[in-house]
Amino acid sequence: MRSPTLEGFRAIFHQPSLGLAEISWRWSFGSAAIALLFFSFLEYLDTLPVTKGEIFLLRSRQPALVSQALAHILRGSGLRAAAALIVAGFALALGWIVISSLGRAASLKALREYFQIQIESSSIELPVVSSSPYAVGPEIRLKKQWVRSLMGLNSLRVAAALAAAVGCIGALVLAGAASPDKDPSPGSAMLIFLTLVMLVALAWNGVNWALSLASIFTAQERDTFSALTAAVDFYRRHTGPVLAAGTWFGLAHVVIFFVATSVVAFPLALAGFLPAGMVLGGVLLVTLLYFAVADFLHVGRLAAYIYILEGPERPPTPLQEAVPLRPARMPPKEEAAVDRDELILSDASGAPPSG
Fold it and tell me: What total of structural domains would you count in the chain?
């Protein structure tokens, strides 16, 4: 059987349109989210009353006076800010559920068709045996049940992200309780906060990965929880290849992250010699390239999982001709060691021969 990791990388190199499609729907949502947050922030600022005295303090450009003016302007506006954040968050979550479901359905359909064509055109003469009972035929049609199941999975992902955010807030509260004003202990508070946040991040990452893996099983018109069950069974039967593919693509993602952070240091180091717009443009360009490569790697990892599911499995090797084994010697019986009734033995017993 070919390496699923190599097949995942081969898929994104042979079919770059798969990665470009992933970038298109992800970046479209990201642009819409940034625009929504920006205009929501502007609307929030329009609701803040600003007096002439506060404008005078802001124009003074003195840090103490400016901070005092801002504190007076923002006083009592926390409720409006929280309401705006809740509305914007709800709109973004709903939009992400719909857009990501449609985009993931299209990318999964394209990946399955790609591997079906690869399997059919393979020159390997070994009989193709499906590696999973969930395999589908070469014609894959996008159905409503598929999208509905993906929307259910993405809703669970949003709920998991919300639970992780609440967990981080709880970690902050617990860390604050460990360092009261009467007996402050900032070191212990920071250690507790980082430990709890790390545990919350690990739990969220595991749940998010399982829900992402379950998306490849929605093509069989399974509902949300049936897809989760199939994902658990798939991981149980193919633990090694799944972990190998996830590990290699994860390492590639880490390498790309460190490369991007190293490259970003160059325009930042030249900030004193280059215009601010050029430095900002260089940082933005490197950031966009990093996100683009990360999206390609995400598609590659998904392709590796689909190859494990849909790809050919090496058939069992034919049995070699059995070497005939010598029959085991039976232990001699003590009582039947010599048969005294045999004629030869009776002649040898001492009787004289006749005639």
Answer: 1
